[in-house]
Amino acid sequence: MPAILVNDVSPVISYVATAAQTLFSVPFEFFNVADIFVERAGVQLAYSPSPANNNQYSVTGANAEGGGSITLGGAGATAGETVVVYRDIAIERLANYPETGPMAVSSLNTEQAKHIGMMQQLERDIGRSVTVPIGESSVDIPTAANRANKYLYFDGVGNPVVSDGVSSNFVQTGTGAVVRTAQDKMRENRTVRDYGAATDGTTNARPAFVLADAVGPMIISEGNYLISSSITITNNVRFSEGAKLIIPTGVTVTFNGHVDAGIFQIFQCTGTGAVVLSADKNFLGYAEWWGAIANISSGGVPAANSIAINAAIVALAKVQLMPFDYYISATIKHNTANGWLCGAGGKWNSPNGLRATRIVMMDGSTNVLQIGPDSNPGSIGLFRQGIKVTGIFVTRAVAPVVSSACTSVLMQFVLEAYCEDVAAYDSMDSWQFNGTVHCIINRCAAHRVSAGTGGTDSWKGFNVIGTSGIAAGGNASLYLSYCHADDNRTSVVNGVGFFADGKFTDCFWIECETVSCTVGMQVIGNSAVTNDYGGNDLTILHSINDAFKVYGIEIRDLGVSSNVEVISPYCGPGVGATAALRIANAYGVVVMGGQMIMGIATTASAAIRVENSKSCVINGTLISEITLSGVVVDNCTSCNIAPVLKNSTVSGAEAIYIFGASTANKFDAIVSGKASGFTYGYRVNGTTDAQNEYNCTGINSAVIAGGSGDKLVRNNVQITATGLTGTNLASGVMT
Q: Where are the domains of the chain?
């Protein structure tokens, strides 16, 4: 064998293979093919002069300076695989040199070369060992008997010692830290895996949970844990992200302690599988715990979100939704007494970066959010009590279907419920109230943007249904305060901002506003029933009705025992509006103060119309810039009509127009403004009016086009003197 030189090259090389690579260089010397070993992806390969597959290799370049190469068989290596080639010469001596006679120099050279190769191998292996720095003495580890089942660590002088974990010390950084055993430190965090819990989601982990709970609080670390039968966990539990309980149908997991988890899924329930959380220990949680996924509207996410949010509402006292979009395919039903569904805000404006919590229904027929039970429990005392919803934007992804009568927020059969900062969009009814008692709706909104499909479209913003008695579905002590309704449909005129009908009782609309509605606020009573105390005590306080298309406020068909009070309303009509306020077929309507600015409504028939009504009062309501009649009174009885009318820039017809069989009414208007601002003060048309008083003192004759003679005109005849005219009385100052 010819002698070769051995270069200073490490006798090992590692490659990251390319796809189907077969040839790999060996950059170090070796003497026989048996000296070369190859591993592919951590697996030892077999030598073969003619390799048949990629688990075999051949070698070339034995006893050559500079090394050689190996070749894999078959398809070679896979891209990214690690291929390691190394030399391993057996450390042995198999021949002696003769003591006398000639010496074979080539054999001596070969033997020396092998010695160098062996030393390189030792250098390679020593380099992979734990060593002490130069200048320090070598150390010995404890014997096998002493180190068995022990931890190895270094003592205060750096010598290796062993510990059973109990007597080893742990000291935290910082002043005042005390010495603790390592075992005591590690036992701070006890996981169910310490008791054998499987994490594959198919092996029953319940026994491990029982064992862990018997000791104390636990951590549920990353993994899927199948709970195959119902269990009650008494201690506190902390979930790591990625930890999830698999709860099949028929299984209930009850937590009597506190559950601590971030905003990620920790429960995977199927069928009737359920989670019960102690209300005393778990006030707030997230729909994400049950698998809700925000901002995704495709696949099975909407259905999963519906299930997750509803499950969270049942289990938690307060469900916190994040400032994202939650797409759903089934109604969210909040029927948990004293439960709170809370979002991050109900005001959403994507172009301006104003984010909110949005619940988005994916179809045009299904109610979005229901507050209260599905059916009437039978009496007010059994109504669901104390439900709260705040900070949520409720809408749908498609236009509403007309025939579905769908609702964005349905509140029914609830007592002392509360909603705040909730915006309801794009349903046939944005809000619907049916059987609500002492409920407060504060700073909420109703909006309609998309026109309905499949029929004649209509809309009610806040629909207070009263077709039956309170216990059977009417509404009592319902407070709508600082709420807003607007109709942004461009070509549809059948929209009402606030609506009440039938047997409402003790309801209050306080500081509410409507914009661009056909009728801003509409009240329809139950006049067909005598002495029916439904439709009783509705107060509309400081309302604003802007740009209405027909009426700002319409009140009609109130029974003899009904009453509605409108205090300081503001009405600003849109072009073509009919009247700011209409009262028809009603008893007991009182309007106090407020103002009707009618300038834009050039085709309006009147600012206020009172038709076929009894015992109604208009007192101190300011009507300005009216081009037609200020107040029209038609066939009314026992009413007190005392508005304030002012035309500073336009000229109108009569301040008050009376006709029909109007009887026992008192008229006491104040009329002012520019010269010829009105054609008449009072104009009476017909001969059937009786027992009415017309007080002319407040009518400024300089404002009347015909002067004082036209303060009171009956059937085109001027009444210029006080006293009876038939059964009617002219009073006050006539000049």
A: 12-127, 150-186, 613-735
Query: What is the C-alpha to C-alpha distance for residues 430 and 441, in angstroms, rounded to an integer?
Result: 13
Those residues whose C-beta lies under 8 Å from the C-beta of residue 193, and which sit 6 or more positions away, are 199, 208, 221, 223
Please state, in angstroms and rounded to a whole number, the distance separating the CA atoms of residues 564 and 567.
10
From residue 628, how far is each of 9, 11, 582, 610, 710 by CA, in Å? 109, 109, 15, 15, 16
What's the CA gap between 596 and 601, in Å, rounded?
11
CA angle, 190 then 193 then 197, to 5°: 135
Angle at 286 between CA 260 and CA 328, to 5 degrees: 155
pLDDT digits (tens, 9 = 90+) for 366-405: 999 999 999 999 888 899 999 999 999 999 999 999 999 9
Q: Which long-range contacts (CB under 8 A, 24 or more apart) does 179-182 make?
A: 182/151
Q: Minimal CA–CA distance to 246: which of 229, 234, 263, 258?
A: 229
How far, in Å, CA of 602 to CA of 134, rounded? 104
331, 336, 342, 347 alpha-carbon torsion, rounded to 10° = 50
Kindly state the DSSP code that residue 208 receives in the 8-state scheme. H
Which tokens in the block code for residue 36? 């070369």
Task: Render pLDDT for 584-608 as a digit per residue (tens, 0 to 9).
Answer: 998 888 888 888 877 655 556 689 9
Residue 328 CB: number of other CB atoms within 10 A?
28
The whole-angstrom separation of Cα 656 and Cα 629 is: 6
Closest listed residue to residue 571, CA positions, set 593, 556, 538, 587: 593
pLDDT in tens, 657-691: 999 999 999 999 999 999 999 999 999 998 899 99
Query: How crowded is residue 235: how many other Cβ atoms within 10 Å of its Cβ?
Result: 16
Q: How far apart are CA 494 and CA 684, in angstroms?
A: 34
Instruction: With cut-offs at 50, 70 and 90, classify the pLDDT of residue 472.
Output: very low
Beta strands at 36-40 and 82-87: parallel, antiparallel or unpaired: antiparallel
Spatial separation of the C-alpha atoms in residues 605 and 470, rounded to whole Å: 37
Token couple for 444: 């909420």
φ/ψ of 251, rounded to 5, equals -110, 135
pLDDT tens for each residue of 486-529: 999 987 779 999 999 887 888 999 999 999 999 999 999 876 55
Q: What is the dihedral of CA 349, 355, 357, 361, to 10 degrees?
A: 40
Tell me the C-alpha distance between 100 and 223, whole Å. 76
In 240-350, alpha helices (H):
301-315
Q: What is the CA radius of gyration of the chain?
A: 45
Complete DSSP assignment for 635-661: S-BS-EEEEEEEESSS-EEEEEEEESS
Backbone φ, ψ for residue 359 (5° rounding): -105, 115
**DSSP label at 597?**
E
SS3 assignment, position 404: helix
Count of Cβ atoms closer than 10 Å to residue 312 Cβ: 28
Answer for the pair 681, 655: CB distance below 8 angstroms, yes or no: yes
Rounded CA-CA distance 41/702 in Å is 108
CA 44, CA 610: separation in Å to the nearest integer? Answer: 102
The model carries a pTM of 0.79
Cβ partners under 8 Å of residue 467, min gap 6: 473, 474, 501, 502, 503
